[in-house]
Design brief:
The protein is mainly β. It has no helices and ten strands.
Length: 122
C-alpha cells in the first residue's frame, strides 16, 4: 500500500520560506517519479512541481517557477519542496503523490496522504 507522510507546513509571512518533506512508508521511492500538489478547499487540486525517478528532470507550475525547488534523497526515501518568496496565494494543503507519467506531464496516482497545511499571511 502506497503511503506518504507530508510535513513541514505551517504559518509563514509573505516573502518567507518553508521546506516541505514527503516521506514514503512501506515502499521505496527509488523508481518512482514524485509530484507535489496543492488544494485550496472548494477548488480543484493543482500540480505544483514534480521530479523524475532519477532526479534529472523537474517541472514547475508557472505560478511557483523561480520560487520553489523540488529535490529528492532516495537514501532517505524522501522528496522535498523548498518554498521561498512565499505569497498569500500559496496558502493551501500540500500533498505528494507517485506519478504515473513523468515530467512534464506529472499525472498523479490517485492515492493521497493527509497533506500538510501551508498558510501564508502577515
Amino acid at each position: 500500500q502506497l503511503q506518504f507522510v507530508e510535513s513541514g507546513g505551517g504559518l509563514a509571512q509573505p516573502g518567507g520560506s518553508l521546506r516541505l518533506s514527503c516521506v514514503a512508508s512501506g515502499f521505496s521511492l527509488d523508481y518512482d517519479g514524485i509530484g507535489w500538489f496543492r488544494q485550496v478547499p472548494g477548488k480543484e487540486r493543482e500540480g505544483v512541481s514534480c521530479i523524475a525517478s532519477y532526479g534529472g528532470i523537474t517541472h514547475y507550475a508557472d505560478s511557483v517557477k523561480g520560487r520553489f525547488t523540488i529535490s529528492r534523497d532516495n537514501a532517505k526515501n524522501t522528496v522535498y519542496l523548498q518554498m521561498d518568496s512565499l505569497k498569500p496565494e500559496d496558502t493551501a494543503i500540500y500533498y505528494c503523490a507517485v506519478l504515473v507519467t513523468d515530467p512534464p506531464e506529472c499525472t498523479p496516482l490517485d492515492s493521497w496522504g493527509k497533506g500538510t497545511l501551508v498558510t501564508v499571511s502577515s
